Amino acid sequence: MKCAIIKENEINETCKMIERACRQSSLVDFYPEETVKGLASTCNYDFIKRRATWTHFYVLKDNEKIIGCGAIGPYWDSLTESCLFTIFVDPDYQGKGFGRKIIECLENDEFGLRAKKIYVHSAISAIPFYKKNGYKHKNGQLNYQDGHFELEKNFNRTIGE
Question: Going by DSSP bridges, is the β-strand pair 56-62/65-74 parallel, antiparallel, or unpaired?
Answer without folding.
Answer: antiparallel
